[in-house]
Amino acid sequence: MTKPLDIVDEPDERRDNRTPIVLGLVAGLLLVAVIIAFVLLFTRQSGDPEPAPDDTPGQSAPQEPTPEEQPAPEETEAAPEAEVAVNGVGFTITQADSTEFTHRWADPAAPAIEALTELFGSAPTEDFQNGDAENWAYDIYVWEGFRLYDVFLGDGGRSRDEVPAPTYVAVTGSPAEVGIVDEFGVAVGDSIDAVRDLGPIDEVELSGGGVRLVLGNNRGTFYNDGKRAFNAFVESDAAGQTVASITYTFRARGQ
Fold first, then answer.
1. What percent of the chain has pLDDT over 70?
2. Any bridge partners for residue 179, and if so which?
3. Are 116 and 148 in contact (CB under 8 A)?
């Protein structure tokens, strides 16, 4: 029969010497772990640059348009360098070099025709308006957007002083190269309702459709005191919606 071994207890001194070794190994492992963690953290931060302060996550920076993408500048109509300004007593022509010519309704027509020909750059087309027992006959000189009427007296020996409107004009358009300016700010193509807002002194329905609005108070008094200060007669299109012509002449009230 085998004799059991005697258990011999390890001396306490040897156990006390092993404890610092174990603690040293644990501390060394912890130090290595900390160093590895720092290395990994530093490597990650250096590999991922921080976004710029102005960058917003999820949005890309706006791109400057290339020359081909730049929007084209809007084209604007150049203002005419010359104009005809019409009012109750006549009209004034202003050329591009600022020279002026003024025509009044009782003046001879020839100088005005010459000045208008120079302004528009071409001679007028000529027409004729027959007279009757109540209306005078007129030679008509036509440019684009503008008509000058000159009374035709014939051989009757009558004087221009006897005629309420020795000359008068009608504005029928707005040529691009010449500005035609009305004293009331009305232009061909404007709304008739806009003219009504100016407070016309009369409104007449036309036989062919549309209306005629009369602007200018205390005018058209030739037979009373000899003054030739004409009203502006603004006629609409047949539908009565837009301005078709502006005529400065003498008419009895209601005509």
1. 67
2. 83
3. yes
